[in-house]
Amino acid sequence: MISSSRRKAVEFVLDHLVWLLLAVVLIVFSLTVPNFAQAGIYANIIEQSTFVGVMAVGLAIVIIAGNMDLSVESVAALTAMATGILFCSHGIGLGYAFTPEWLVVPVSLVLSLAIGAIAGLINGFFTIRLKMNAFIVTLASYIWIRGLVVAVSGGRSAQDLAPPLRWLGIQTLLQVPLIAWIAIVVFVLFTFLLAKTPFGRHVMMIGGNQVATYRAGIKVDRLLMWTFVLAGAIAGLAGWLLAIRTSGATANLGTGMLFNAFAAVVIGGVSLKGGVGKLPGVYAGVLLLSSIHTAINLMGLPAHYTQVILGLLVLAAVLLDTVKHAIRQKFI
Amino acid sequence: MTADTPLLQLRDIRMRFGAIEALRGVSFDIRRGEVVALLGDNGAGKSTLVKIISGGLQATSGTMVFDGSERHFANPSEAKAAGIETVYQDLSLCTNVDVVANFFMGREIVKRYFGIPILQEAAMYEATERAISNAGTRIPSLRVNVEHLSGGQRQAIELNRFVHWGGKLVLLDEPFAALGVEQTRRGLEMIKNIAAQGIAVVVITHIMAQAFQVADRIVVVRQGAVVGDVQSADTSPDAIVQLITGEALPGQARNARVSNP
Question: Does B118 touch chain A (CB under 8 A)?
């Protein structure tokens, strides 16, 4: 047994480890990497964090509830491609337009959210109704949804998104792009949802002890279904933002984001065992990864090394999860 | 004996799993404030019986009268809503959240702002604190995650939660299997406390000494039937062991059953 003040200190450090890491990394890079220390670079890090960040929110909710969703990247690619094909005027774009023109914004957004939600519903159906392993179900979705993207696009791309959407993509507020603010709003919204509503409380408790929540009369299956639908819809939003940012869509859009999101979620303090984690930490994890990416670019390392480093980071993140668990067992 | 009707009456409960008859006509009563120890060997039908009472299984035939009316619980939530709950060995707590969250699990106090339910932490904290201190349980902090609490404290939270939410009959499945000597002593005391508040308690245990320490009555199940239903003051551990194993003539306890309504 150790004193409760010491336990609180250890717990505080473990809970906020990612913020500490982020601060250290930012300071070290600012001091050592040439051209890192400037407002434009910091704004760029926040902008880069948009897509992985949004995706990570849904992924984190599913993992906190004790499941897994590997399909978020492919779902984002699908909604980006759907937006691209319907509302782009060149390439494979069909160029649908509305009067007034701005209607394309809500229509494409709602469509993207709906496509994502349906993908989540499919994942949820197999995982919850048919009691299949979430890892395998969503791995399958990861593959077939990406396959669908390649199939419907024929491997080609859509360019020149409708002007109102393009306009959204280049707006900035306080030097930070509007779409990055959307990501931040998503984080704030879902942080609130997880921390202050019965939904969030129940998701957390289901991740901790599903049997107990079932016995307590909580509608576990329905809530778990919601986590998948939310993760799908949020991934749909990420895809929509991706389409806006790139003013179109390619068949390989967003490739590799899943593992960035996954690494961010784990680095951010969400336990893969479920029931532990907070969204602000996940955002810090995303910022941390973006900082490292940016530093690698600035140092002029060949792009291939980025992937090596990313792989090692994912490994380190899972290792960190294990180490934190061991530290908790030992010191708390 | 008091004149009021028993809280729970089981009449000729039978349970079939295919060709196997797990329960072959079980009948017994439990009164308010009574502690009943349910004993029997592995496979005797104890857990089947407990699951039927708490809604986890539906009996093939037989009737169950609870609190004055005949009931058929389709699932544990219905039983729970009626005031019957099982406290399992593996504990029905979420150790990754604090005491307050566990106390209000599934019954959170919320206030709606623009239709969105928001958790009322302060109100839940106060209610938890009041309930826990009324029960005489000491827990260092209600904001600490349950994973940092001892087995005895966890059990206290569960039982206090049960009483607080209007429980009438609690089924305890091997409640002290994971507890130390001192914690077990406190646990037994807690059971007596709960019974004193008019709540009926069924304790399933393998440990004869505990059964005799805490129970007013001992019910023995063997091969799917009640073979003994005796006041614990009127019997001995040896007689109960014989009933459980069916080795000797159970005449002594059978007589006791007849004399006991």
Answer: yes
